[in-house]
Amino acid sequence: MALKTEPFMLNIGPVHPSTHGVFRMRATLDGEVIVDIEPVFGYLHRGVENLAEERTYTGIIPLTDRLDYLASMSNNLAYVLAVEKLANIKVPERAEYLRVIIAELQRIASHLIAVGAFLNDCGAFFTPFLYMFREREKIVDLFEMVSGQRLLYNYMRIGGLSQDIPPEFLPALEKFVEQMPDFIDEYDRLLAKNEILLARAKGVGILPQEMAIDICASGPVLRASGVQWDIRRADPYSIYDRFEFDIPTGNAGDCYDRYRVRIEEMRQSLRIIKQATKQIPPGEIQAEVPHLIRPPAGEAYAHIEAPKGELGFYLVSDNSIAPYRCHVRAPSLINLTALREIMVGWKIQDAIIIFGSIDITMGEVDR
Amino acid sequence: MTVSLAGPEIAKQIAERFPEIISEISDQAVVVKSKSLFEVAEYLKSSPELSCDYLNYIAATDYYDYFEIVYQLTSRKHNHSLMLKTRCYDRSQPAVPSVVSLWRGADFQEREIYDLMGITFTGHPNLKRIFLWEGFEGYPLRKDYL
């Protein structure tokens, strides 16, 4: 006699350690296999776009910190670039170099957490995560030197930076840049050929190239699918056209490739930092801008290659002290579009690592 | 460097194929009538000279008289980008065609606009609130929302 079965609905999250924030996946299961999944979010929705309409242009910078709170500096950068484009402000050379150094350090810090949390999801409970945090701590110390903060930095300003770097910053940075490649090699030795990681991540959650473009994925998720598209190269902002670096890509578009791309990107970021520290000129770090900025009426969109993908700000000005409209193009939200496609057909334990490999921050998804 | 195509340049390309659907041309964008939006978007994606295969973002703005929806498109092949706009003058039941069948990445973004701005995207496969809960009254990003 055939056993009667029926699909089973399971809520994963919203409060669950593997959902990296308050995120819910409504999974329909056939035994262990996922037959349908629906992402549910909005638990962290604070209405940042609406709040921004009531603040001065400078007053929005702390709000951007709270989008992707693991990469606050990158959010600051994308926002100030949009305002500078809108108001046509030229930034001093020294500030440009410092911005690049800091944005690349932030990329390393964000990727360390992404990789650490991904390995956590794979079952390597907190051991690699703590190794990653050991290095991230050094970056956070560097950021504390320049901004006084350890998570939400509020460091960049329209037309420059809030303050110049202290004298102890560059020696500490040089020491970090010297040591970091060895640490990345150490992770590679421990993990790249690790049998458990290969078994869990290789060939799992494949995002084909055409689909990656169709869902408008960006960042490591897009590049792991074999698309060589990096905004730093395709549409260089700030002074990225002055540096040499490679764009690592994957072939298969599986969880393992997404992990590998992040590891390789950390090495490339170090290359950029090395070149930038050699060329950094003395001088001003802040352009002369009025205290209350009133950009001419119009609109502007500026985007950067943030650690998680293309982060952009679309601003509309009506020549007042606050933007008429401030839209955030959040990479985490758009990368999530792929979730259903790459998860259906896999088992529930795979779903956890597929989700982990996309690397999202709920602050940015919900805004 | 991604070249931003100027409004008149895009308008020339579109006008050849679709006469009388352009309602305004600005320096950096072209505004098309909302009923023909899907056809124009399809053309921008499939035309070999433009081949805009990547949708950067969709954003909607409330200008009191009308809602404006902005589509930023990029062609990876030619490394250029363009800004397509459409407007909705009906405040009580604004609706524009959905582009999800062209770029799947529009899925969550159109739901977000529906949720916060109250614009319906006809043809969207799963149009429901995304951040706020079902039963929430009003659309908070509208300028007349209190």
The shape of chain A, in one word, is globular
**How far do the termini of chain A sit from each other?**
52 Å
Q: How many E strands of chain A?
A: 8
Estimate the mean pLDDT confidence of chain A: 89
Share of residues in helices of chain B: 10-25%
Q: Give the overall pLDDT of chain B as a whole number.
A: 86
Strand content of chain B: 25-35%
Question: At the third CATH level, what is the topology name of chain A?
Answer: Cytochrome-c3 Hydrogenase, chain B
Question: Which percent bin holds the helix content of chain A?
Answer: 40-55%
Task: Give an overview of the whole structure.
The complex is a heterodimer of chains A (367) and B (146). By secondary structure, chain A is an alpha+beta fold. Chain A has helices spanning 48-52, 61-65, 72-87, 93-122, 127-147, 169-191, 195-201, 209-214, 220-224, 231-234, 255-279, 331-335, 339-343, 348-358, 362-366, and strands at 8-12, 24-30, 33-40, 156-157, 160-161, 298-306, 309-317, 325-329. Chain A has one domain: Cytochrome-c3 Hydrogenase, chain B, CATH 1.10.645.10. Chain A has 15 helices and 8 strands. In chain A, the strands form 3 sheets. A 3-stranded antiparallel β-sheet of chain A has the order 1-2-3. In chain A, strands 6-7-8 form a 3-stranded antiparallel β-sheet. In chain A, a hairpin with a 2-residue loop joins β6 (298-306) and β7. In chain A, α11 packs parallel to α14. Chain A starts with 7 loop residues before the first strand and ends with a helix. The model of chain A has no long low-confidence stretch (mean pLDDT 89). Chain B has 146 residues and is α/β, with parallel strands linked by helices. Chain B has a domain at 3-93: Beta Polymerase, domain 2, CATH 3.30.460.80. Chain B is built from 3 helices and 8 strands. The longest helix of chain B has 12 residues, at 106-117. The relative contact order of chain B is 0.16.
